[in-house]
Amino acid sequence: MVAARVLGVGFSMTLHGSDLLVHRAYLDTKLENCRFCLTISSFNRLHLLKHYPAISPDKVLIRRMGVELLQFLSAPPLLESASKCMVLVSVGRLHAVKDHAFLIRACHKLKDRGFKMLCLIVGEGPERASLEHLIDQLDLRHEVELLGALPRDWISYYYQLADLVLLTSRSEGIPLVLMEAMALERTVLAPAITGIPELVEHGKTGFLYRAGSLEDLVQQVETIWKMRSAHAPLRKAARNHVQAYYDRKKNLGAFADSFLARVRLSRDSSYENSLLQ
Predict the structure, then answer these.
(1) From CA 96, how far away is CA 127, in angstroms rounded?
(2) CB–CB of 196/178 below 8 Å?
(3) Residue 202 in 3-state DSSP?
């Protein structure tokens, strides 16, 4: 914003998740002065228009993120596991906002109920030591494993290995992790927060649980496991949904078109002003 003012030009901005919901430094001023704003979900757009009513709705555009479909849709499918143990996979940095501690407590509750599972957590971060301590404290060393940071190919393997891919974040935009898992036709479970329900339609492309409800998360896991043999249409619908709305190549094209259209509009407006003068 400052550079644009110094140079005498316009500027645009993008808003994804925490920059809108948590770190809102001078956001009202930025929105007032930008030419236009791009955001990744309908939730974000409605949030902006509600909290900043002075901003013109025409100024706030939705441009979704996405995944490389060829990378994820061409992976050879693994055989369905015949194991009596449910494999849970969670992918994300070990940060407090991802709330892996909540997932570990859910695993403890499941174990107390006699539920057989293996929870694999992919990612690295500052919460590792506290999560390791929690795993020891709850006697989950055989049920929960922290795999650390892994190469992309390995992560794809674990997605395919999963009976269920879980997300337990406290705040998100629309997570790429869920898009990746759904592109590989994996069943997903995530909190019903922010823009996630735009990607995961409960019972249609995946499952949602009430944010902050440990009991609801546990019940959803148990129900999903019991009904696993009937999930093939849902997994197929998940992949189709990603193909239709979260194709990175297509969405990047729309993102670029937004800039070209605004540049053209700005150029035409400058030309008209010069004629009037």
Answers:
(1) 7
(2) yes
(3) strand
- Tell me if residue 30 falls in helix, strand or coil: helix
Q: CA-to-CA distance for 29 and 116, rounded, in angstroms?
A: 53
pLDDT value, residue 219: 97
Local structure of 190: helix, strand or coil: strand
Of 145, 213, 152, nearest to 221 (Cα)? 213
Selection from 16, 23, 43, 48 nearest residue 176 by Cα: 16
Q: Among 42, 175, 40, which Cα is nearest to 166's?
A: 175
Helices marked H in 162-213: 176-183, 196-199
Comparing C-alpha atoms, which of 110, 97, 90, 123 is closest to residue 218? Answer: 110
Comparing C-alpha atoms, which of 40, 34, 36, 42 is closest to residue 251?
Answer: 40
Neighbour tally for 232: CB within 10 Å: 12
Rounded Cα gap, residues 254 and 260, in angstroms: 10
Amino acid symbol at 82: A
pLDDT confidence of residue 275: 45
Asked if 76 and 52 count as a contact pair (C-beta separation under 8 A), the reply is no
CA separation (Å) from 217 to 15, 37, 112? 29, 35, 15
Neighbouring-strand partners of residue 86? 117
Q: What residue ranges of the chain have pLDDT lower than 50?
A: 74-76, 79-82, 271-272, 274-276
Nearest to 182 by CA among 233, 229, 241, 247: 241
With beta carbons less than 8 A apart as the criterion, state whether 67 and 39 touch.
Answer: no
Question: Rounded to the nearest 5°, which phi and psi values hold at 247?
Answer: -80, 115
